[in-house]
Amino acid sequence: MAKVRGPQVGDEAPDFELASQSGERVRLSDYRGKQAVVLYFYPKDDTSGCTAQACSLRDSYEVFTDAGAQVIGISSDSVESHTAFASKYRLPFALLADEGGAVRKAYDVPATFGILPGRVTYVIDREGVVRHVFSSQANIGKHVNGALEIVQQLAS
Fold first, then answer.
1. Which of 40, 47, 58 is closest to 119 using CA atoms?
2. Active-site positions, per UniProt (predicted)?
3. For every one of its 156 residues, what pLDDT tens digit does the chain have, with 9 covering 90 and above?
4. Integer Cα distance of 63 and 108 in angstroms
5. Where in the chain are the domains?
6. Is 50 designated active site?
7. Reported pTM
8. Domain 17-155, second-level architecture
């Protein structure tokens, strides 16, 4: 498991603004004071691991929203790629295009073998504070289940 050197539990999550698959601009700060955010960085649209993760989040989406959290995915794929990916798998949450990798850098998401963009999930509370960080390229189920556990704790 790669060590994430970016924001840790207790740190304020770096704000950003990126385009979603609908072309809408999304800012992390738009959620401050309103809802928690499950922010997940993933390597690439329409690859087996990323599809499994996105579909697992889709299947749990109602549980996340019922607990007061919004799910947001980020990769360096284009808006067009995100549009096709979200449509193909009926993903109900925003996929943001970080084409230059600036947000991935701000969160210091590690690369696997120095080339494959890492897979890291953050749970950020309503006040913009990181409450959970999980980094694993392969253990996709733990990304979703761990985030769900934390979101439910924050809601209670």
1. 40
2. 50 (cysteine sulfenic acid (-soh) intermediate)
3. 445 578 999 999 999 999 999 999 999 999 999 999 999 999 999 998 899 999 999 999 999 999 999 999 999 999 999 999 999 999 999 999 999 899 999 998 987 766 778 889 999 999 999 999 987 766 776 768 888 888 888 887
4. 28
5. 17-155
6. yes
7. 0.91
8. 3-Layer(aba) Sandwich (3.40)
